[in-house]
Amino acid sequence: MNKQELVAHVASEVGLSKAEAERALNAVIGGVTQTLAKGGTVAITGFGAFCVVTRAARGARNPRTGEDIRIPEARVPKFKPGSNLKAVVS
Questions:
Q1: Alpha-carbon dihedral sign for residues 82, 42, 53, 23
Q2: Can you tell me the distance from the alpha carbon of 44 to that of 81, in angstroms, rounded to the nearest whole number?
């Protein structure tokens, strides 16, 4: 499912126009993005939690040249599924 399909699904489930559903979805995505950018966590009970973790620096090898390179540590977003989502998927 891509974003437009999700917008259409939300619009039909809630009874909104597609434009209203897209604005609502953009607001949710914007809220999650802003919170994660500040280092916060977004928890949706039963669905899951979005958080930011720090991935440690590590060594790697350039496959083209075979040269050893160092990949610096990075802050990356992470999603941890909730119990209800896990139950539905499995």
A1: positive
A2: 9
Q: How far apart are CA 70 and CA 57, in angstroms?
A: 7
Q: Which residue has the tokens 């559903």?
A: 21
Q: Which two tokens stand for residue 72?
A: 């610096």
**pLDDT tens track, the chain, 90 positions:** 999 999 999 999 999 999 999 999 999 999 999 999 999 999 999 999 999 999 999 999 999 999 999 999 999 999 999 999 999 998
Q: Which of 77, 84, 79 is nearest to 38 (CA)?
A: 77
HSE toward the beta carbon, residue 60, CA cutoff 13 A:
10
Q: What is the pTM assigned to this prediction?
A: 0.80
